[in-house]
Amino acid sequence: MPRVQALSDPTELRRCMRDLLALSALPAILQSYDPYQMADSIAAALVSMLDSEFVYISLHGTRDGPLIEIARADGRSAADSLEAIRAVLPEILPTLSSDRQLAVANPVGGGTASIAVAPIGLGGDSAIVVGSQRPDFPTPNERLLLGIAANEATVALQRWQAETEERTRQTEEELQLVIDTIPALVWSALPDGSVNFVNKRLIEYTGLPLEEVKGWGWTVSWHPADRATLLEKWRTALGAGNPFTLEARVRRADGEYRWFLCSTVPRHDDLGNIVTWYGTITDVEDRKRAEEAEKALHQAQADLAHLTRVSTLGELTSSIAHEVNQPLAAVVANANAALRWLGTQPPNLEEAQAALGRISRDGSRAGDVIRRIRALVKKAPPRKDRLDINEIIIDVIALTRSEVLRNGVSLETRLGRDLPPIRGDRVQLQQVILNFIINAIEAMSEVTERPRELAIDSGKDASTGVLVTVRDSGPGLEPESFDHLFDAFYTTKPGGMGMGLSICRSIIEAHGGQVQAANVPQGAVFQFSVPTAAS
Prior knowledge:
With 535 residues, the protein is of the alpha+beta class. It is 47% helix and 21% strand.
């Protein structure tokens, strides 16, 4: 760097000192700037310090980044003159390491311009170029200021690049740490589908070296039964450029296969071309098992509910037999009567016809009883039909009529009119009502001091659902039983299994409803509510 020339002019000396102080403040100013702001600030400072026509600065923000160019003239931006300045660069650039004077056609005005060039110490085409119409430009002092400015630009840019690289390195390390520690196997692939990156967890899980996983080698870790489907769907996604998800089993390093959810999405460039595929493989083994621990539970509950229905019907054998025998006995009596009327001379066809009508009616009665029994005994998956709750109540009352009469119980029904339909399983809801009625009859079996009364009501609940209530005049419920009344295996009956009310609660809750029990004066009440089909 040339030495400063001794100045005898006090004004020139003060100006030089002012400019040197201004340049010494640049490091603090440039510390928080990016490369473009650095170049623009230095260009503005040089325009104010040097008697120049223009200042041009070129540098690379990053080592492989695009060239940044700044041009200023008389304190104003000379961006519109960049092309003219670039045109003289082939003459200027060879002088980057030379102190010789150079004159070229003035790119921002008429005449010629004396050029001073100070390379920014990053190599390549990074430099400060200043042009002035003065023939003696640059003086040693101006060259000193220019050199200091170039040096400060070099230092500031090197510091920015180092900090940027450190931030980038830290970000990459943090990103890699996140990728390696997230609870999923992560990978990426080229546009043709060949894998080019996997995270640490995937390598640890499969036990395969990175070299064997890359390309298409990762497919060996998939279960043989899932591999063909996975590859077919993967190739289809590659052809269509669409994301896809698939559940498949992946082999662990110890040889065990576990279920995983495979999700893949493409990344496109500005033209819509796929440049990378990104994928995650998430362990869903526990979820799959829970879905299966759940399916089995539902099946067990259904089987138990069926067993309870059959058991309840077994307890009603004598009543059911009576319900069937009544219409069958009437059928036999009416058949004999019809035969007698037909055997008279002349045959009494009118009476015979009336007897045959009674046979048809009583046969239908017996058929209805058998139909209801078969429906309750039949083992079938739950249904979701539109149902009339009053029809369900009437069917159950028909099955229990003889049991009610045999136990000296008076039955009263108050069924709401125009109730909205519900959606559910007819047999399951019949089972709940049947259980409530049988429990009520059994609760009143020891009552002798007052009438045995059973009331069954239906109506709308407080919200938009339908409410069914079964009330008895028995001794009521023990207070300590309320918290456990609907728990499995809890019973207040001698020899009871404790499953009836538990199954009732499961059925009602599966229908989106609630079941409750309470004591009332001289008895107990059991009720359930279920939402309407519309809700």
